[in-house]
Amino acid sequence: MKVLLLKDPKDKDSGPDPYIKELSLHGLEATLIPVLSFEFVSLDSLFEKLSHPERYGGLVFTSPRALEAIKICLKEKSKNEAWSESLKQRWSNKPAYVVGNATASLVEEIGLIPQGEESGNAEKLAEFICSRENPNSSSLLFPCGALKREVLPTTLKEKGIPLESLTVYQTTQHPRLQESLSSYFSQQGIPASIVFFSPSGVKFSLEHIQKLSGDFINQVK
């Protein structure tokens, strides 16, 4: 049985994608098709803020992409040295709140200790943060995407916990999405199941999938 996963494959250096691996153990033939493309922005502003941990009470990450933005900053030698020599240690004394294991593992890669990864979504992470932070304390720095949901900022604001958001990436359609979908359907036929991983993924791909599936769309889980 075939499953179409509308997501980027996991970094090749870290082994096989866990979705492909897990589904294959259950006899399912899974295929990954990237749906989204990301443009990173405001990286100088991001590192300027990271250079002043004394201004903040901690960090908040709800997307692996925000960590990718930091890793791009750290590719520059002078910034990497500044991070390694002092900034990493100073930030490690503050909480780094995250949603999910993928984001948590990237936080660990830059030398920080994630908290709240078991939350699973922004609503539960907001509750977790509110249970640990005091109102009117130093702002939490929140590098995020242009399409971020407002649940977390709104919840923290209602509890008096300051949050400073900075947009560090924008989401667009993957340039080869329609080509990849057409190729998949022509070569492998209509999958038994399709898995979406984000609202943007639905927005960019659903209409094309419906056209390719035709009258059989109702048979797809």
From TrEMBL:
An annotated Gene Ontology molecular function: uroporphyrinogen-III synthase activity
Tetrapyrrole biosynthesis uroporphyrinogen III synthase domain segment(s): 19-219
EC identifiers of the protein: 4.2.1.75
Gene3D superfamilies (UniProt xref): 3.40.50.10090
GO cellular component labels: cytosol
Keywords, sorted A to Z: Heme biosynthesis, Lyase, Porphyrin biosynthesis
Record-linked SUPFAM superfamilies: HemD-like
Pathway: Porphyrin-containing compound metabolism; protoporphyrin-IX biosynthesis; coproporphyrinogen-III from 5-aminolevulinate: step 3/4
GO biological process: heme B biosynthetic process; protoporphyrinogen IX biosynthetic process; uroporphyrinogen III biosynthetic process
Catalytic activity annotation: hydroxymethylbilane = uroporphyrinogen III + H2O
Pfam families (alphabetical): HEM4 (PF02602)
Coiled coil: none
Family: Belongs to the uroporphyrinogen-III synthase family.
Function field: Catalyzes cyclization of the linear tetrapyrrole, hydroxymethylbilane, to the macrocyclic uroporphyrinogen III, the branch point for the various sub-pathways leading to the wide diversity of porphyrins. Porphyrins act as cofactors for a multitude of enzymes that perform a variety of processes within the cell such as methionine synthesis (vitamin B12) or oxygen transport (heme).
Protein name (database record): Uroporphyrinogen-III synthase
Originating organism: Tinamus guttatus
